[in-house]
Structure formats: structure tokens, C-alpha cells
Design brief:
alpha/beta, 7 strands, binds NADP nicotinamide-adenine-dinucleotide phosphate
Length: about 240
């Protein structure tokens, strides 16, 4: 029995990439996992993998950028889990292009998913953690949330905003024994980064999703008096 055994978690965007690796790492620690996403087939497949690791696993299909869907989806998941201890706000999208070239609809969708989605999900989970007077929220930003670059105006705007929201929330709820951690990883081999062509995914050098998952598990294992406020995960020698 590990320290985290029996905890209940929700991981948004848990069907692939960083979210899926985190779900698997949680299951190996004995944490029950609820994953979310839009593609039901991928969610079902991942839930089967999680169950094989001996934990309770479930999923909900909703767009994090749609508040009505989030309200219904989160309430259903917490009902199925029985309670909630850990939220990983991981779901996100990326697209690059100059400010003028990118369509208004695409720019807006990035903000709606990466920022508003995180806000909506957090708003629905937070009351349960406050009532329990214990909980953990891990918010996934990016190195693009620390530095702007040509072609990343939408993605960087969303990820800078995530840091502002996440740090503010941390200061708001630490009195309630809720730890809020903001992660700013560099490039990690995932469908997102491979599809964007920003890495070849070479496992000798490039960060892998399981490295990211290991960091989250390590942060959750800290004594409750200690909180990892923020962390940047980088490749040693890219
Ligand atoms: N990979 C990197 O290099 C890197 C570096 C820094 C930060 N990040 C951040 O890490 C997070 C995960 O990235 P990743 O590389 O694992 O990406 P990924 O492989 O594309 O996975 C993204 C996940 O988010 C879900 N998702 C996307 N839009 C959604 C929406 N509107 N509603 C619900 N779920 C949605 C996807 O599921 P569906 O498609 O089924 O909806 C999928 O499960 C993102 O926030 C990303 O910005 C990634």
C-alpha cells in the first residue's frame, strides 16, 4: 500500500499523451482514475488498460471548453468515483501560426480549450476539495507560458494565462489544505508534439510522457505540509 493508494483522481485529456501516461502512473500507485476527452474510443481503450492495473477506472466524454458539458461530466464522474482528491488539468490543444494568418476561430478555440476549459473544470471540482479540506490540483502550462515566440501568440497567451490563474488559485486555497501545482514542461514526445513536427520523439534524448507522470506522482507524495508550487521539466541534453 503506497501513500496514494485509494485516492480518487480526474485527469482531463487522459486518453493519450501526457494525460494517459499520468493515468497509468496513478493506477500503478493504486489511485482510482477518471479520464476525460472528446474521442470515446480512445477513452474506452485507456480505461481498459487502467482496469488491468487493478484500480477503478471510468471516463466521460465532453469538450472542456463547453461549460454545460463540463458541469454534467464532472458531476457524473465524481458520483461514480464516490469522492475526489486529485485533479490534473491536462487537456489542451496547440496550433502555431502568425497572429494575422491564424483564423479568429482557431485563435479563440485555443484560449477556450486551454484557459476556459481549465477554469470550468476547476470551478466544478473545487467545492468538493474545499469541503473535504484536502486536495491536489495540477495545472499543465508549458514553457510557452513563460516565453512568447513568433507563431505562438494564441498558445502562449493561453499558457501564460494558465500560470496567472493557477498561482492565484494556489494563494486562494492553500488555507484549505489544497495544493495547486503549475507545471511548465518543455517539449515531450506525444501525439501533439509529433504532429506539430517540433520533435522526432527520440527516446534517448527527448522527454517522454512517463517522465512527466513521474514528476506529478513525486509531487503528490510529498508530505502534506510541503507543496511543489511550480516546476519546469526539461530534457537534459536535447
Ligand atoms: N507535448 C508537449 O511537448 C507539451 C509540452 C508542454 C505542455 N504540453 C501540454 O500538455 C498537455 C497535454 O499535451 P499532449 O502533448 O499530451 O497532447 P495530446 O497528445 O494532443 O493529448 C491531448 C489530450 O487532451 C484532450 N483534449 C484536447 N482538447 C480537448 C477538449 N476540447 N476537450 C476535452 N479534451 C480535450 C485530448 O483528447 P481528445 O482528442 O479525445 O479530446 C487528449 O487526450 C496540453 O495541455 C499541452 O499544451 C505539452
Amino acid at each position: 500500500m503506497g501513500k496514494l493508494t485509494g485516492k480518487k483522481s480526474i485527469i482531463t485529456g487522459g486518453s493519450r499523451g501526457l494525460g494517459k501516461a499520468t493515468a497509468i502512473a496513478f493506477a500503478k500507485e493504486g489511485i482510482d482514475v477518471a479520464i476525460t476527452g472528446r474521442n470515446e474510443e480512445r477513452l474506452k481503450e485507456t480505461v481498459e488498460e487502467l482496469k488491468e492495473l487493478g484500480v477503478n477506472a471510468t471516463y466521460a466524454v465532453f469538450d472542456v471548453g463547453n461549460y454545460e458539458e463540463v458541469k454534467t461530466g464532472i458531476a457524473g464522474l465524481i458520483d461514480t468515483l464516490g469522492s475526489i482528491d486529485i485533479l490534473v488539468n491536462n487537456a489542451g490543444i496547440a496550433a502555431f501560426g502568425s497572429l494575422n494568418e491564424m483564423e479568429v476561430s482557431q485563435w479563440t478555440k485555443i484560449i477556450q480549450t486551454n484557459l476556459m476549459g481549465m477554469y470550468y473544470v476547476t470551478k466544478e471540482v473545487l467545492p468538493y476539495l474545499i469541503e473535504k479540506k484536502e486536495g491536489d490540483i495540477v495545472n499543465v502550462s508549458s514553457t510557452a507560458g513563460l516565453n512568447g515566440n513568433a507563431t505562438t501568440s494564441a498558445y502562449s497567451a493561453s499558457k501564460f494565462a494558465v500560470i496567472g490563474m493557477s498561482e492565484s488559485l494556489m494563494k486562494e486555497v492553500r488555507k484549505d489544505n489544497i495544493r495547486v501545482c503549475t507545471l511548465t514542461p518543455s517539449t515531450i514526445a506525444s501525439d501533439m508534439s509529433l504532429e506539430l513536427g517540433i520533435t522526432d520523439g527520440n527516446a534517448e534524448k527527448v522527454l517522454q510522457p512517463e517522465d512527466f507522470a513521474e514528476l506529478i506522482v513525486a509531487s503528490l507524495q510529498l508530505p502534506r505540509r510541503a507543496m511543489l508550487k511550480a516546476a519546469s521539466l526539461w530534457s537534459t541534453n536535447p
